[in-house]
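Reply to thread "Modeling small-molecule complexes from scratch"

Following up on the discussion above, here's a worked example others can learn from. I took a protein sequence and the SMILES for NAP and predicted the complex. Inputs first:
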Amino acid sequence: MKVTVVTRSGREVVKGGIQLKDSALVSDLQEEIHSREVVVLTCNVARLDFLSLIWLVFYFPVKKYYPSRQRLTLPLPPGYRGKPTVLSPKKGIKEYTEGNADNLTVVFKDLGPQVYYSTLFFWEYLGPLIIYPIFYYYPVYKYFGYEEEGVIHPVQTYAMYYFCFHYFKRIMETFFVHRFSHATSPLSNVFRNCAYYWAFGAYIAYYVNHPLYAPVGDLQMKIGLGFGLICQLSNFHCHLILRNLRSPDGNGGYQIPRGFLFNIVTCANYTTEIYQWLGFNIATQTVAGYVFLVVATFIMTNWAFAKHRRLKKLFDGKDGRPKYPRRWVILPPFI
Ligand SMILES: NC(=O)c1ccc[n+]([C@@H]2O[C@H](COP(=O)([O-])OP(=O)(O)OC[C@H]3O[C@@H](n4cnc5c(N)ncnc54)[C@H](OP(=O)(O)O)[C@@H]3O)[C@@H](O)[C@H]2O)c1
């Protein structure tokens, strides 16, 4: 069959179209687009050595539209304002043709440079993991006008271990637990997400380790950190449950998570994430920590609604599909 690949403005991406076997997958089409794209000269800058001020500029030919950078959709009928159908790389091209047609036109969009999800998560979590101990171990407050070094309260030490354990756990989960459905994410997300996590990491660390920090009572610290730790372990358990919904190569789509807190709430991993930050804040009591808690809760609540809607749509109880059970979305007994 012949596939014509056009941009949204109608320009042909591969002149003359692409001839593929009827059994070809969308991923085969993406490989073909990549191999047949016009080679462009890309600028690469290299410095001769660390001390040198001499910079070399290389131009070398590259093919930039590797498959994960491509988004292929079906053309929208004239006047239609809805979202186009996105072609799944794992599906056969024939599934997107009408009847037994031998021709298909697809619309190509460049998603821009991509990074692996694991790379994105690694960099966003590494920032707080490094930044927080800097405020604890080093005399940084003299740069903020505080000459006297304050005494270190036990809660500040425990909070530092708690905070670092949290981000270390998230890096480990990224590499050894999560089974992502999408391999890559736009490079621009690295900068956005790093700004979010690194800035909040520094903001919280600044106030919790401040020389004028006033600690809460011993009992409150123990309750807060103890509760938070239980929630961190529960969060890990939730991630193991989500992991087991997919095969090791990430296949399996979206399933109904069952067991543990998932029997009550759709996004139990977010619920436990929110509660573990609450535990941290009960123990440390800073405005910065609570601001982060509110922002993170807001973000996760939005995502949780979208995930809840998706599962209800996928499991609608029609045509033999199971019906999604009645559950809270993220924060029982409210939402
Ligand atoms: N503090 C904060 O601001 C903040 C914000 C967000 C997340 N977090 C933390 O980071 C963790 C990971 O975040 P996330 O947004 O990546 O979590 P997530 O999307 O809920 O799930 C984690 C993994 O499980 C998969 N998954 C989720 N639901 C599934 C289902 N029904 N069937 C099959 N697989 C499913 C996801 O696949 P996909 O690849 O398809 O999504 C992903 O690989 C969270 O649980 C939370 O602890 C913290």
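What I'd highlight from this example: Residues 170, 178-182, 235, 242, 245-246, 254-255, 257, 269-270, 273, 296, 299-300 surround NAP (CB under 6 Å). The radius of gyration is 25 Å. Questions welcome below.
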